[in-house]
Amino acid sequence: MEQHPTFHQHMNTAKTLLEQGRDNAFIESHLQQQGLDSHLLSSILEQVKRLRNAKRTQNGSMLILIGVILLGLGFVSCIFLHDSGASVDFALYGLTAIGAVVLVAGLTMIFH
Fold this sequence. Notes:
Elements: H1 7-19, H2 24-33, H3 38-84, H4 89-111
Helix pairs in contact: 1-3, 2-3, 3-4
């Protein structure tokens, strides 16, 4: 009697393909070649989509945190540089611009 692969075995295959950077269409075609029924296939593809979105959310959140830290550093350094009479150009324009770009990149990763 031949034993058919379980949901978890197919899910592990899908996770492996996802970690290799494969897109959803490739994962779907690979799983269809293994003879999955449409209900099981749609369930696995839904889980793959959740995993992909979780990774994007994690990376986007990290970028947002870095952007906020850069913006905060720019603000604090502007205060100290202004009090000491030094030029605030880099802190005001450089750190703020870099922080804003990184922050928007993180938001784009999460909400795209």
